[in-house]
Amino acid sequence: MRKAYLILLFYSALSNAQNTSSFDHFFKVHENAITISAPINDFILKNTKPYSFMVGFNSNRPSLYVGPSNGFNTTGDVGIGTVHTNGFKLNVAGDVLLRRLCIGGEYIPEDCLLAVEGKLICADIQVTDINEWPDYVFEENYELITIEEMGDYIQKENHLPGIPTNKEINENGIGLAELNMLLLKKIEELSLYTIKLNDELNKIKSFRKGAI
Predict the structure, then answer these.
(1) What is the Cα–Cα distance from 168 to 182, expressed in whole angstroms?
(2) Which candidate, 60, 55, 63, 66, places its Cα nearest to that of 17?
(3) pLDDT tens-digit series, residues 38-58
(4) Which string of DSSP letters, residue by residue, matches 142-176?
(5) Over the stretch 7-40, which tens digit does the pLDDT of each residue have?
(6) Whose CA is closest to 82, among 94, 74, 73?
(7) Residue 60 and residue 70: Cα distance in Å, rounded?
């Protein structure tokens, strides 16, 4: 039923083209290449790639391009707004609006818009939804545990306080924003320990100078 509908739709378009302009301008087959277009104001869509298919209207550039396959059991590349697929199965020359996208896998979690199965490489990632940046560590009422308490905790739990365990990470993963905030919090706490140790060292130096 679907094939019949598509054939009927295509036949209707051809009939309209014959009524409004020359059939040759609408549908062209040249050197094993098919072109469907409706030239207006002398715009001419030329298909120069054998065994390919182009569709475009009111422009000399195709809106849709389907490139040739390489024989049995192969498929051609598709270009939207371009005929240059650059080795990709799909190349879109322009903005794309997608609701959800899965790359390299077959499943998108319900709370995700993008799922990537494999490595991701990019120049930068900007995180905007951050509830509380850990500058509160430097507030006077922040309770910083002592170095001795830190040592006891690490000896017993085998990880830093406030940092998920290896088991928790393997089971649940962790968001980049959360991880960066946790790491920054530990860096700020470490800075406080360093400042405190430096103050104590200066006191010892002053005491030794006074004792000489």
Answers:
(1) 15
(2) 55
(3) 666 667 788 888 899 999 888
(4) --PPPHHHHHHHHHHHSS-TTS--HHHHHHH---H
(5) 434 444 444 444 444 555 677 887 778 888 866 6
(6) 94
(7) 27
Cα 199–chain centre separation: 47
From CA 142, how far away is CA 151, in angstroms rounded? 19
Q: pLDDT per residue over 62-113, tens digit each?
A: 899 999 998 899 999 999 999 999 999 999 999 999 999 999 999 999 999 9
Identify the pLDDT of residue 33: 84
Q: Which two tokens stand for residue 121?
A: 């490489």
3-state helix, strand, coil in the chain (%, to 5): 40, 15, 45
Q: Which residues contact 160 (CB under 8 A, 6 or more apart)?
A: 153, 154, 186
Residue with tokens 């050197």: 31
Backbone angles phi, psi at 38, to 5 degrees: -135, 85
